[in-house]
Amino acid sequence: MAGYVAFLRAINLGAKRKFSKDAVAAATEVGGGTNVATWLNTGNVRLDSSRRSTALVAAELEQAYEEAAGFPVPTVVLTLRELRQVADDAVRFAAAHPEAGAHYVSLLQQDPDPATVTAFCERWNGPDHALVSGRAVHLLLAQRNNYHASSLNGDTVERAFGTATNRNARVIATVAEKWAS
User: Fold this and answer.
1) Tens digit of pLDDT for each residue in 118-138?
2) Cα–Cα distance measured from residue 82 to residue 30, given in angstroms and rounded to the nearest whole number
3) Where in the chain is the domain with CATH 3.30.70.1280?
4) Alpha carbon distance 140, 144 (integer Å)
5) pLDDT tens digits for 6-35?
6) Cα angle: 3, vertex 167, 65; to 5 degrees
7) Strands, DSSP E only, in the chain?
8) How far are the Cα atoms of 68, 96, 124 from residue 108, in angstroms, in the given order?
9) pTM of the model
10) In which band, very low, low, confident or very high, does the pLDDT at 87 lie, cut at 50, 70 and 90?
11) How far is Cα 81 from Cα 113, in angstroms, rounded to an integer?
């Protein structure tokens, strides 16, 4: 059994996309997960699986989540090692860019194309800038509480890289501390 963390996209954001932690946990078990734990209502799930591919784990979970919730639930799955690396990168990038007022991390469902990474980072190299490491796009925004006002946000990331889900760097650090230490 391998350990994973699943990050669910766009749940509990409005009246029509409700998916409680208990329902997420139960659906995770239906999707093949064992030793399931959840944190917050935003879709952070720790699980073990006999599958050895994050893509296979994500596909099985997405099917179980859609059946349980009644709507599609895009899901990004990271190994515990990948999650630890994302958290470590967040610390390193924050230290290298102390001028950033806010730090968010968009987790990608697929490995990004290197040419797309280069073009994206060149495009977003101003007051709001992006750094990509593995399947994580770090969004370092000039202003605090500026995520929805900035042109560099989850929609921008998804247009470039495909399905992604976003967390602030503090959530990534907490989830990594809880489950990937």
Assistant:
1) 999 999 999 999 999 999 999
2) 24
3) 2-79
4) 10
5) 999 988 877 788 999 999 999 999 999 999
6) 55
7) 2-8, 34-39, 44-49, 75-79, 102-108, 129-133, 136-141, 164-168
8) 23, 23, 17
9) 0.95
10) very high
11) 21
Dihedral (Cα; 131, 167, 106, 45), 10-degree rounding: 130
Predicted confidence at residue 14, as pLDDT, reads 74
Q: How wide is the angle at C-alpha 68 spanned by C-alphas 63 and 70, nearest 5°?
A: 90
Q: Which two tokens stand for residue 32?
A: 């093949």
Asked whether 167 and 84 are in contact (CB, 8 A), the reply is: no
Do 109 and 160 meet the contact criterion of CB atoms below 8 Å apart? Answer: no
**Protein fold of 2-79:** Alpha-Beta Plaits (3.30.70)
Gap between the Cα atoms of 106 and 60, Å rounded: 22
Cα-based distances in Å from 102 to 127, 145, 148, 159: 11, 7, 12, 21
C-alpha 37/C-alpha 53 separation (Å) is 20
